[in-house]
Specification:
The complex is a heterodimer of chains A (248) and B (260). Chain A is of the alpha/beta class and 248 residues long. Chain A is built from eight helices and ten strands. Helices cover 85% and strands 0% of the residues of chain B. Chain B is mainly alpha-helical. The chains are: A alpha/beta (248), B mainly alpha (260). The interface between A and B is medium-sized, with 26 and 15 residues.
Chain lengths: 248, 260
């Protein structure tokens, strides 16, 4: 279970997270929605320790994320970055097997390659992609490679940062279905941030609406449409009028 | 404007400069500590050796050969003013080994390697590849900085040594080809005149300049701003800083080795 309590973060004079309280039960898929620049990515980065919160506590299964063995903590996570964040200098299979080629999870090279090809197959890519370099792939293929890398070491917790941004609707649907299948199959805890409401409906068990540095609404995805929160309703229906200013 | 404003500006500038020096020093200490502590990334180190050393050889060789040749011509024509044309081999040797070899190789490495390291790491930063490294339990300093720094510390002195030799031969070809020197006596004068301290100072300078070049590339890459402009600024600043620091370090090291 991931728990954020009173998390605050500012960058210079700009306050991004004012007071975030959020609980993600183990084995569930939480999707955080909200406008651009509302701190969704910062929230994920705070959990991973990539950004240090100014105040508040973040725990994973009761342990503070800033205490204990950092490598062991990070080994529990997989993350799909918005732009893929694939390493340009490495072929696809080495990107996917990055964690399996070094560190505590190191395996023999041939075995790591085999696992990488299996994970690529899992996300719908053929083995001939394994030796290509990221720059040779389309955006959708890069996302899938990023997804394969995120799941390569069978993590307990997976983060997805804007998994369908920049993809056509068909490819976005493919990625959404893959994420849902993988999360269900692995029994992993998932946190996704997105603007894409079709992703929300495909991926989420629970939804949290982040606006102005606080969680405005959170609940099961089935209750989202009936919720009365004006921020949530404006966002999910994409209305220009409402409490969320169109010009921010 | 308050009469104290220029003083305040001066104070801010000095404090800013000192803070930057402190940040770079801490970064350098951190990078050096990662060279000594496991895990070690051998593949990345070998790749850095290839990039910094082997692939820099053509530019280093060409720079050295032309500089050695031009130096021979200058010494010959300048020396002719006081009947000292015969010292061309000795002055080419001492000029190349003590000064021009290390400095020019250092500056070429700053242009070629520092810029490339800064641009690569800065691009990795703006495309979240550095964050991805962290999430994959890999320390960016250990994976990106330590192998490059270690490779530069080892291979740039070798490049300087090679540059010194090629530069001397540049002078030799000009001296024997167009200035009428006897090939055997040119080489004998060169070898006889050089002292071990000349060569040692050259290699130590190479080591220092290599360290500066790699550190500046990594430092500015890691601290890059956002977007293409951030990458461009990081690259430009890294080369400027490396070039200035190499020249400053050259002055200090020359003082250490040869002050009378």
């Amino acid at each position: 279970m991931i728990t954020l309590t009173g998390v605050q973060k500012s960058f210079g004079p700009k306050t991004v997270l004012r007071h975030v309280d959020l609980t993600v039960p183990r084995g569930t898929s939480m999707v955080i929605i909200g406008g651009s620049g509302t701190g969704k990515s910062v929230t994920l980065k705070c959990i991973l320790g990539l950004v240090e919160p100014d105040a508040g506590t973040i725990t994973v299964d009761g342990s503070d994320v800033h205490e204990g063995d950092r490598d062991a903590f990070l080994a529990r996570f997989g993350m799909l970055f918005q732009g893929g964040a694939l390493f340009d200098s490495l072929p696809v299979w080495q990107n996917v097997a990055f964690r399996l080629l070094r560190g505590a999870l190191k395996r023999p090279r041939a075995e790591a390659r085999e696992i990488a090809i299996e994970k690529l197959r899992r996300v719908g890519l053929t083995p001939d992609v394994a030796d290509a370099f990221p720059a040779e792939l389309s955006g959708g293929m890069q996302k899938r490679v990023g997804l394969a890398r995120a799941i390569a070491a069978d993590p307990e917790i997976i983060f997805f940062d804007e998994p369908t941004t920049g993809l056509d609707p068909i490819m976005a649907g493919v990625i959404n279905d893959l994420i849902r299948e993988i999360v269900t199959e692995m029994g992993a805890t998932a946190m996704t941030i997105t603007h894409d409401m079709s992703s929300v409906r495909a991926i989420a068990d629970h939804v949290a609406m982040l606006h102005d540095g606080v969680i405005k609404w959170t609940g099961p995805v089935a209750q989202m449409d009936a919720a009365e929160d004006p921020y949530l309703q404006q966002f999910i229906h994409g209305r220009a009028e409402g409490p969320i200013a169109a010009v921010r | 404007m308050s009469p104290a404003a220029p003083l305040a500006l001066l104070g801010r500038t000095v404090l800013g400069f000192l803070a930057a020096v402190g940040r770079v020093a801490l970064f350098a200490g951190d990078a050096l500590s990662h060279i000594l502590r496991p895990p070690f990334y051998g593949r990345e180190f070998l790749q850095a050796l290839l990039q910094i050393g082997w692939l820099s050889l053509p530019v280093v060789g060409l720079t050295a050969v032309f500089t050695g040749g031009a130096l021979a011509l200058q010494i010959y024509s300048g020396g002719a003013r006081f009947n000292a044309e015969a010292v061309v081999p000795q002055i080419v040797a001492i000029g190349m080994v003590r000064e021009l070899g290390p400095v020019l190789v250092g500056l070429m490495i700053a242009a070629r390697v520092t810029s490339s390291i800064a641009a690569e790491i800065a691009t990795m930063k703006v495309t979240e590849q550095i964050d991805a490294l962290v999430t994959l339990s890999t320390h960016p300093m250990k994976y990106l900085t330590a192998p490059r720094l270690l490779a530069a510390l080892i291979v740039v002195p070798l490049l300087v040594g090679i540059g010194d030799i090629i530069g001397i031969f540049g002078g030799y070809f000009v001296g024997t080809g167009s200035l009428g020197f006897n090939p055997a006596s040119y080489l004998k004068n060169t070898v006889d005149f050089l002292e071990p301290l000349d060569v040692i100072s050259s290699l130590v300078k190479g080591c220092a300049f290599g360290g500066i070049a790699a550190l500046m590339g990594c430092y500015y890459g890691m601290h890059s701003g956002r977007g293409a402009q951030g990458v461009g600024r990081a690259t430009k600043s890294s080369v400027e800083a490396a070039a200035v620091l190499i020249l400053a370090a050259n002055f200090l090291l020359t003082g250490v080795f040869f002050s009378v």
